[in-house]
Fold each of these.
Amino acid sequence: MFLVHPEKNKTDINLYGAVQISNTAFLVYKNSQGKVELKTGKEEKLQKKAVKNMLLRNPAVKKLLDKYKIKLSINTKTLKELTGGHMNETCNIAKGVYSILAENLNPEIDQSIVKEASMLHDLGKILIPSKILNKPARLNSKEREIMNIHSTLGYELLKSQGVKEEILELVKYHHQNLNKSGYPEFEEELPQNLPLGMQIVSIADKYSALREARVYRRKLSRLEALLILYKEVREGKVHPAVYEALMKYASLYDTDV
């Protein structure tokens, strides 16, 4: 165990949120004196210190790891890769889908909430074992079960950091579907404005992932990715209006066929 005792932590470092500037994702850190720092995810020592503080402040994270027999290890390489690629792309797609929806609807959720949640949604993956994250084959049922807790881990890690409740809920439920067939299960009745934000972050995450090359598959084309997500519309997992907004975004901005 490498956690630092609270009394020896003379300066706390908190991961306060995320922001995108000039198409670059920055993690927002704040120390005990209130000083704010923006980092791109390459500062491994800072990342580890921030995550250690999160673990110290919320024992629920360790309990969740123990439940699934996951050895505590902070995978800073994963965070570096996320901030350099998937976080940015998911945020870009989410912003685009939101803007297109806003032309026809009156979203009750603020765009800034959607943007920040889309950049923080996969934070929990820094505690998922690399052998599962980077397995070059289909995950077995036990590995899938462990992978699926990353959204809850992200929620619990951020819970003590002053992150807005609306952002926390989107981080936790970004793998939940319109027909409630995703994960984790809803524990209680959700705020009325959550489903729209949840759908935007979810479809942005899915489309971004499908358009990326992964260790277990090639990068899918724009058409292939859209067809997979259209199947989810027919299955009741994705709202048709959200999917149509994604299609419009992809036709305008995703030029890499």
Note: The longest strand covers residues 13-21.
Amino acid sequence: MPSPPPRTPTESQASSNRAKVFKVLDADEINKDWAQSPGLTKRSTQALHDVGMLRTWNDGQVLLSRGQPTSAAWLVVSGRIRISVITQEGEEQLIRWMLPGEIAGLSSVFAQANNPADMVSHGITQVLHIERARLIELIGRDPLVALDLLRILGLRINQLFDNLADQGMHSLELRVWASLERIAKYNSTVVPDGVMLRVSQSDLAQASSASRQRVNQQLRHFQEQGLIRLGYRNIVLLRKDPNR
């Protein structure tokens, strides 16, 4: 039986480099918090800055429209990006907010497919554009960046299934609460009595596929039950009191 052809020095060196990277992988970085964080690690962010181009967008500017071809991924550096789609009834449905440290466009870039949603800048927003060729080259030589991007794609797939499940709920109460929990996973801040969601009632109404008036009534019902606290453009999911 003929022996396999010898590996070229380039192949051997690349394999050795990958092995070294995984051997020194910090175990503290691969933990539950890392797995659930919607943002990239500092290491991955720096690596992307080295190969990307920074651009600034004004409030309300459309970065990409649904169905538009794209050859770049987008990393939010500052500001926010609104991700939404227009339904068959002509109504906007909010998918999520992109916050600093989060990346978009991975599925379109890797699959060379059109952009699946509208992306609009909210306020002055700085975005790092990473062209497909540079991104592919980076993940080919840096397995930690590749692993981080795979994690982000996995979270987005899970979020997609969460969105589909929420839309199938007939009860407004269930839809609104499910939307609150989903937003809390990706866009919230811990406060002394719970977690604060940075979301307006209008955005929540779009995420729940309901009118703002009906969602407002449901939120006030939740507040009366001691489940939430309403604020200006924010909602706090209250922590349960163990003494109750």
Note: The longest strand covers residues 72-86.
